[in-house]
Design a protein that fits this description.
233 residues, alpha+beta, five-stranded antiparallel β-sheet, five-stranded mixed β-sheet, 18% helix, 37% strand, elongated, Ig-like_fold, Ig_sub2, Ig_V-set, Ig-like domain-containing protein
Amino acid sequence: GQTAYLHCQVAQLGDKAQVSWIRKRDLHVLSSGVIVFASDQRYQVIHPMKSENWTLQIKFAQLRDSGIYECQVNTNPKIYLSYYLTVVESRAMIQGPEYVKTGSTINLTCVVNQAYMQGLIYWYHNHEMLQYGKKNEVTISTHGDHRQMTSQLSIASASPRHSGNYTCWPTSAKPNWAIINVVVEGEQPAAMQTGAACRNQCSTYLLAVVLILQLCKLVSSSLYTDSFLLYRR
C-alpha cells in the first residue's frame, strides 16, 4: 500500500542517450525518459529539470510488484543498475496475556510491521470501538519509528465484563485479534476446567470400552463352545 521509489542517478547523460526502466519479470519496458509505457497508472518516472536522477515511482505497492527492476542507459556498451524490490504485507500482531486476574490491569501491545505508518490504529472490544479515556479506564498510546508502529492498550481494574475479543485494527494494515479471559481469584479458567472434565470423561469412556471388549470376548468364546458341542452331537 505504500509508494516505492527506485532511484537511478546517471551522470553526463548527453543529448542522445536515454534512460529506461525495465521490469525483469516479463522484460517489460516501463519507461523511456519520462514517458511511461506501462498501462498501469501506478508507475511514474520522476526527473526534475537538469537533474541526474531518474526515479521510478510505484504507487500503492502490491505483493506482485516484488522483483528485479533495471535502470538502463542505451549506450554502447549498455550500462545498467539493478534493484530487487521486496514488498511485504503489513499486518498487526497483538502481544499480551491470555488470562488476567480480576482487579489487575490488562496490558496489550499491537505491533504493525510498517515504518511510519500512515493512518490510525483502532482498538475494539467484542466488535465495539473502545472509547479513549472513558471513565479514566482505558488508556491507548501509539508511537512509531523507522522499523514499526506500536499501539498499547491498558485497562485498569479488570473485571469479568472485560473478557472477550480484543481487535487491533490499523487503517492501512491487516487487523489482528486476541481472546482475553478475566478470572476471579481462586477460580479455574474455563479452558482448564474443560481440560479436567475431558480427562475425567475420557477415562470413563476408555474404561467402558475395555469392559465392552471383554464382554464381547466372553460372548464370542461362549458361542464358539456351544457351536463346537452342537457340531459333535
